[in-house]
């Protein structure tokens, strides 16, 4: 029986919440998906550069496009958070902003 693959978005959101972030931004940059965690208007790289051609990057983009249509919930540390994703253009490439809201 095949195991289920861990959600790339879930891993990133858990890391962002641990750092107190309310938003994740994912943008393409020179062959990589660059991930930044943001508190208000200040964004900080969370040390995550995913090669754009990798399976993780493909999975990440698929999850983000799906979340753009249907928000999703995640439980972290006994608390429930709602994730909403917006797509925007960044220099001709699709970029994503994931809002993290505690319910």
CATH class: Alpha Beta
Residue-averaged pLDDT, rounded?
88
Helicity range: 25-40%
Biggest sheet, open or closed, and with what strands and sense? 6 strands, antiparallel
- Report how far the terminal alpha carbons are from each other: 35 Å
Give the SSE string: HEEEHEEE
Number of domains: 1
The CATH architecture assignment turns out to be 2-Layer Sandwich
The portion of residues forming beta strands comes to over 45%
Q: In CATH terms, what is the fold-level topology?
A: Beta-Lactamase
Order of strands side by side in the largest beta sheet? 3-2-1-6-5-4
Count of individual helical segments: 2
- Form type: globular
- What is the CA-atom radius of gyration, in angstroms? 13 Å
Query: Which segments are poorly predicted (pLDDT under 50) over 5 or more consecutive residues?
Result: none
Can you tell me about this structure?
With 103 residues, the chain is an alpha+beta fold. The chain has a single domain, classed as Beta-Lactamase, CATH 3.30.450.90. Helix content is 25%, strand content 50%. Strands 3-2-1-6-5-4 form a 6-stranded antiparallel sheet. It is globular, with a radius of gyration of 13 Å.
Question: Secondary-structure map with pairings?
Answer:
Layout: H1 8-18, E1 23-29, E2 32-39, E3 42-51, H2 55-69, E4 72-76, E5 79-90, E6 93-102
Antiparallel strand pairs: 1-2, 1-6, 2-3, 4-5, 5-6
